Amino acid sequence: xxxxxxxxxxxxxxxxxxxxxxxxxxxxxxxxxxxxxxxxxxxxxxxxxxxxxxxxxxxxxxxxxxxxxxxxxxxxxxxxxxxxxxxxxxxxxxxxxxxxxxxxxxxxxxxxxxxxxxxxxxxxxxxxxxxxxxxxx
Length: 137
What we know:
The protein is mainly beta. It has a single domain (23-133), classed as Cathepsin D, subunit A, domain 1 (Beta Barrel), CATH 2.40.70. It is built from 2 helices and 10 strands. A hairpin with a 4-residue loop joins β8 (117-119) and β9 (124-127). It is globular.
């Protein structure tokens, strides 16, 4: 009889998989590749503020406020408050900054532009010979 995964007892309590202070300005959580974000890379204001604590050279261009409107699921539309260009190992990425509790979300269009793909068998972003580990949280 096959084992049914949903009936197995977890080996670790679920609390070990929660991110403390998730998406606040206290801890920068990194950039998440997001197949659901097709055309625009976005970040919540709090995670932007967490990043600039680590890299004060990053700035937000507020002249682009209102350029982008994003709707997460069935929620209401959120309008961007500016754009931050983030230098990364795979190139510069423009993130629309939102007043919403979200991480840095790397969209498919930017992955295509940068010629990057996610290898889920090795948990890496791959760009030619460049390999960047992706940590599952």
